[in-house]
Write a structure and sequence with these properties.
By secondary structure, the chain is an alpha+beta fold. The strands form three sheets. A three-stranded antiparallel β-sheet has the order 4-3-7. Helix 1 runs antiparallel to helix 2. The chain is globular. Bound molecules: zinc ion (2 copies).
Length: 101
Amino acid sequence: MYCQRCNKSLLTRSEFAALCSQAGLEIDPKTGSHVSGTSGVRNRDAIRLIRRTDDLGLKCNHCGHQYCQKCASKMGSPYVFAGEVIGITCPNCKICLDYLE
Ligand SMILES: [Zn+2]
Ligand SMILES: [Zn+2]
């Protein structure tokens, strides 16, 4: 799976979760992407992982486009539901993108 725009290979949410637990980090259950518990973590794996949240893959279930988180947040818009931002919209068809599992 590759990002449609920058051709970077995409991380799924479960791959990312496995990498995080190896490095002793936790994923924010709300966003599924941000790493918490990082304040005391100084190892290199952890720092590399925090940068890799950009590589998390998002997919549009409507048009099938796939993007990395970095491109999606650059090209899409925040998806707001009940006054809260809960995701990013597909740059192609404006439907909320789902994380690749
Ligand atoms: Zn990309
Ligand atoms: Zn779409």
